[in-house]
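User: Good morning. I'm curious how succinic acid would be positioned relative to this chain. Could you predict the structure with it bound?
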Amino acid sequence: MIKTLLGGLSPTRFLRDYWHKRPLLIRNAVPGFQGLLTPDDMMHLASRDDVESRLVRGSGTHWSLDDGPFRKNDFKRLPKAEWTLLVQSLNHVLPEADALLAHFNFIPHARLDDLMVSYAVPGGSVGPHFDSYDVFLLQGQGHRRWQISTQTDLGLLEGAPLKILKQFKPEEEWTLGPGDMLYLPPHAAHYGVAVDDCMTYSIGFRAPTAEELAYGFLTHLQDTLAMEGRYADPDLRLQTHPGEISRGMLAQIGEMVARIQWNKRDIAEFAGRYLSDPKPNVFFDAPDTPLNRTAFIRQADKKGVALDPKSRLLFAGGRFYINGEAFTPGADEIAGLQQLADYRRLNPPLPVALRERLHAWYESGWLETESS
Ligand code: SIN
Ligand code: CO
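Assistant: Good morning! Here's the predicted structure, ligand included:
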């Protein structure tokens, strides 16, 4: 981790005093940081159909939102002020962005969402709003003025195509330049406006809602549940109303449903699969001309391996989860896999016990050898 990233705070103190609690401005968090790409690179990314992008225009109470992919000409028609181009999951397509995320390793990977980048011309903004997630806003090229507020009135402008606060009452204001960073906890009202041509890198985290988790868990249970028995009524008595569902029938159904049980193992299995599952728009590309097993091992042994930026590898106890799949590795694989999960790479030489598994992941596009 870069020493200055948290402005001299240790990760322990940052987590205790700021994380999920209050904003923190860090001047010169990443010294010398000028950004990872140019406006032209951004426009090129926004023209790809495998990259999620949006264009926000407007100010005050007038806003418009368009989804990408865009054509180069779309940008030529834009005015000189008041628009912002957003590109999601930059870490999936740019190795430097993936490397930048590694500095935020003091937050568990299961909480990480992605790195979003915005490019704005003067006056460009996505409006005053709040997010449901923690975010680090790292300034790349140019300058952005941020205003924040502790207001609890989070009422939104009606009819706007994006979440804009109806009333925004700024309490603090800073202009961030290259390398400066602002941490915001969930629900902190904020409003960033580009002072000049500027780019902001948002390191975003995810926190599923109780409803999403419950729905996901019920779906998981549905796939794994094994129940015995069948409705039975050897003591059935003549009913006055054949159309009525009797109390006895309801009671028996209630008992059957109440037999659905789960334990800590089921919870871990669900959590591991759910949290490592890539977003629906993520696809892995198998290598075009894959190295054969021997060549892969030779290269990996020399250069090491790294998870593909889109891969998510997590573990709980002795159970591992990669991209929504679960497995229990052999005892001799565990240390290497934990290292790969923590640092997303394994330095050479490759642990012999991991060769087969890593080669299979390489063939699926989940992992790459360092020089490929
Ligand atoms: C931006 O970078 O323009 C928006 C980021 C945010 O406000 O969350
Ligand atoms: Co925001």
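Residues 84, 118, 126, 131, 135, 190, 192, 200, 202 surround succinic acid (ligand 1) (CB under 6 Å). The longest strand covers residues 112-120.
Let me know if you'd like a different ligand tried.
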